[in-house]
Design goal:
This protein is α/β, with parallel strands linked by helices. It is about 35% helix and about 15% strand. The chain is built from 7 helices and 7 strands; from the N terminus they run αβαβααβββαβααβ. The strands form 2 sheets. The chain has a 5-stranded parallel sheet. Strands 4-5 form a two-stranded antiparallel ribbon. α2 links the parallel β1 and β2. The chain is globular. The chain starts with a helix and ends in a 22-residue tail after the last strand.
Amino acid sequence: LIDIASAHGLRLHVETDCDSCARTPATAEELCRRVPQLALSLDYSHFIFLGHSPQEVERLHPFTDHVHVRQASPGRIVELVEKGIIDYGRVLDDLKRRGYAGLFMVEYLACGETDQCGVDVAVETPKMIATLEGLLSAPSSISHQNFYYMPITGDRSRPRSDGKGGGTFRP
């Protein structure tokens, strides 16, 4: 798959997901070391849900080319913005230090997990967007051009963007 993607000018990504072959930070890192051209679509929430610390997840930053953004806590794959344990300021600082030029995507989807956790995506999505925009607007931060988010309907076919970096939230 790496060769096919490369032949078309693409980079193959694996999402760090509870149900993927990159289920733990250690297995995701091992996979990337064994397949050097592979990149990660890093989603902290899956690791946090499974009980890994944010510090354990940081070891994956060198392999990351895309970041899914939402809050989580141990046992809760999706969490209210103010109750989650992921310090996105720290995440952005470390990614910037490493020269990260990939994308960020806020991903509060309307699905069973959000219902089970009592999270209203129509409320949490704009709160997470505002948090991320605030962090990205800091003079020392990563470019705001790298920020997209998915519509709250769960439609994964296209990100929303105003073409100038950042998105326009329209519930």
